[in-house]
Amino acid sequence: MKLPIIAYGDPVLKKVCTPIEQTYPDLKQLISNMFETMYNAHGVGLAAPQVGLPIRLFIVDTGADEGDKNKFKKVFINAEILEETGEPWAFNEGCLSIPDIREDVMRKPNIRIKYYDEHWELHEEEVSGMPARVIQHEYDHIEGKLFTDTLSLLRKTMLKSKLDAISKGNVKADYKMRFPKQSKKR
């Protein structure tokens, strides 16, 4: 089932997420729904807060964009980035919760991460290149951070009207979105 993607401005996107247990209700179905939602939106990663759940879960599938040898598809539960190394490099990132905005974001090319997979097997591994970048982006989501938080004050100011429009639902996306409830003026 395709889930609505939570739009910029919703408080769930700014929450530090809580770990989950193996008994989390309907976890297998949630993971399946998240992959379906991500593929429908043409994304390469999706975090639980982006579907309204403040839990430490995200998925990544870099697809075959870089060729089959670089295909990287994984589920990350209760992930913890242990180390980030290398010379930071810029890449133009976007986010399904922030449609139509892309900005250069600096990230280190190598990470060491510990996480549980969908079978609750514990992994600790090193990841490099584009998969590492996607993991860092999704990991930021479960830490309550968005890629726009990394931008300079000037750049944020320049994007303010676009970001405000997204939070008010004034954006077109080719996938279902849920927008923050607007407070009623009295």
From TrEMBL:
Its cofactor is Fe(2+). Its EC number is 3.5.1.88. Transmembrane segments: none annotated. It catalyses: N-terminal N-formyl-L-methionyl-[peptide] + H2O = N-terminal L-methionyl-[peptide] + formate. Keywords: Hydrolase, Iron, Metal-binding, Protein biosynthesis. Fe cation binds at C95, H137, H141. Binds 1 Fe(2+) ion. InterPro entries: Peptide_deformylase, Peptide_deformylase_sf. GO terms for biological process: translation. The active site is at E138. It holds the Pfam family Pep_deformylase. One of its GO terms (molecular function) is metal ion binding. It comes from the Bacteria. NCBIfam families: pept_deformyl, PRK00150.1-3. Belongs to the polypeptide deformylase family. HAMAP family: Pep_deformylase (MF_00163). Removes the formyl group from the N-terminal Met of newly synthesized proteins. Requires at least a dipeptide for an efficient rate of reaction. N-terminal L-methionine is a prerequisite for activity but the enzyme has broad specificity at other positions. This is Peptide deformylase. It comes from Pedobacter heparinus (strain ATCC 13125 / DSM 2366 / CIP 104194 / JCM 7457 / NBRC 12017 / NCIMB 9290 / NRRL B-14731 / HIM 762-3). The lineage of its organism: Bacteria, Pseudomonadati, Bacteroidota, Sphingobacteriia, Sphingobacteriales. The gene is def.
